[in-house]
Amino acid sequence: MKFDMTAEVRERAGKGAARQLRRSGKIPAVLYGQGECLLLTLDPLTVTNILRSHAGSTALISLSVAGAKSKGVRTTLLRDFQVDPVTGAILHVDLFGVSLDKPIRVKVPVSVVGGVPAGVKEGGILQHNLRELHVECLPTVIPDHIEVDASGLLINQGIHVRELKRIEGVKFLDEADQMVVRVAAPISEAKLEALLTSGAVTEEGKEPEVIGKGKEEVIEGEEAAEKGEKAAAVGEKGEPGTEPKAEKKDTKEHKAEKKEPKAEKKKPQAEKKEAKEEKKK
Length: 281
Description:
The structure is a single chain. The chain is of the alpha+beta class. It has two domains: 1-98, CATH 2.40.240.10; 102-205, RNA Polymerase Alpha Subunit, Chain A, domain 2. Helix content is 37%, strand content 30%. The longest helix is centred in the last third of the chain and has 39 residues, at 242-280.
């Protein structure tokens, strides 16, 4: 699908200029690709119509740019956009310029067709594993969406990427073994309740594992053993602090013994003095 849209080149950039554009009822936009980058102003109504269409981001846009120095009409894709989370108004748009003769890579939405799958009628649950597919093709052959017929799926059956219907000129880039859609088996309320209760019982029945405490006890035991070995070694060799004191006492006794001969030498001198005094008398 192709749309026509007009735009104007804007000179000012920044948050202040963007706010002024929004107040005046316009949307700031950027066009990049094909070796150029332009600041543009768009009409919000046209952008809203493109986004609400089935094509969406895969739609080709013929963009007429007023005030552009180079070519006035370009082929573009609406690559990205920002929305106000409160009001839902479009705040900014990113446009990507493409060449019609060069392949590009885009995301294409998946559309499940064929009515209600057989497995869902039996109580199964339809699961959308992939809501978008990555494809490579020329801009002129980009599909609006990729149809997947899930009507024949039974419970526990699905469709992989390799099983999708091939489209001429379109190459699927997702892995071939990836599941696109499947019908899962239902879980009864009794089974779900049993699973929940068994999980709660096992969690309550488990005793907490104390890892740090065991390590601390081992470390304390090793330290006590080391202290005991040191004490035993000290007991066998004797206290290291008492031996030097005993040696010091022995040296004092030797000094006293050395002083005794001096005292003995003094005794003969006293006897000689007494003999002299007796002769004088």
